[in-house]
Prior knowledge:
By secondary structure, this protein is of the alpha+beta class. The chain is built from 13 helices and eleven strands.
Amino acid sequence: MGLSCLAFRIMTVLADTPKWMPYLPDWRVLCLAAALAFLSSVFFGFAPALQLASQKHRRTFARQLLVGAQVAASCVLLILSSLLVRAVLHGIYSSPGFGYEQVVSVSPRLNDHDYKAPAAEATIRRLAVRLRGLPQVTSVALVKLPPLGGGVTRMDTKVDGRLLQVYPNWVSPEFFSTMQIPILLGRNFNPGDKKVVIVSQAMARRQWPGENPLGKIYWDKDVVIGVAGNAHINAMNDGDAVEIYAPVQTEDMPSISIVFRTQGAPDGLELTCKSIVQTLDPKLFPQISLLKTNFHTAMRSVEILVSILTGVGILAVMLAAVGIVGLVAFTVSQRSKEIAIRFALGSSARQALSAVLGQYWWPVLIGLAVGLTLTAAFSNLVRFMLYGVSNLDPMSYAAAIALLVSILATAALLPARRALKLDIARALHEE
């Protein structure tokens, strides 16, 4: 109980939960935990009790099955931890395809105040002019779904039988320079453009492989005029996502946000932006955020999950290792006469180890196979946190399996060494 309270307290601190949230269990939780502990003891003790009652001391199938289940659980937890660690490292050390560290997002939320499109456009234009006049601001752009803002629109289409997840956005021509997204082919939007789109490089390759995308018709009879660099503006976690951009129109203005880039660190500009917005309309309460803060907040949630999964994974590996140690030690004690006879007849140490360990590799291998299957099936559940990493990333799988196998091999060899130090004469005399 003490360990569980301590673990839960650590989790609440890592997750920044409110201080008023209790972490000590009440009597109902204690009763449930006690009942589960009792049932677990009865369940896992039933098979050994039957073996003792029937004098089948050598029967180890139940133990092997338990070890296989522990290996499978350890495999799942370690691979998920490895995937999330890779995602965190990818987010920290690689670029998401756009510059976010010196960008501020301002969402005046005009649609919450029943602004009509013409009035919203006039307010947005005046706000953009005021922000552009700040000395540290280098560029200002309009966007319907601000980067890392949580708002996402997605369209699913099929290309050659494969699902293509398209994330659309509506932006002004300055958006690409403000977010440092290069135009790789074609041109940028011009003021007054309609019925045109710019697609990401990934979308162009998947939608029109081997073809020039310029001039292609997509969406609602829109013409592709440019290809932009890949930038997961609102779908960093989806490595298969592709983007499409359309020019902002007057009817979009009530839901438009503004992003602007600064020369230095944008810290401390929140109050200035709020003051500017409220000079235009005192009723407005804008949502202002630094994109670097949004990015690190998103990464923080992944780090918390990594810590939890890693802790549970280590505990599962320890249980599996203890199970292997117990199984091998039991085998050595039960087969000491056989091992002594093998040595007396001239068997080598390798042959003796093979006799002791041979029957326990199959539950480990089956556990690994089941664990890999379960991980591949359920890894989509954490896909939304895998920034730039596939849920089937081979490096993560290989690293987790190598660690698990090395721990289990060490756990098996430690008690197996007793067989190599066996006193042949004593073992035969005792038997």
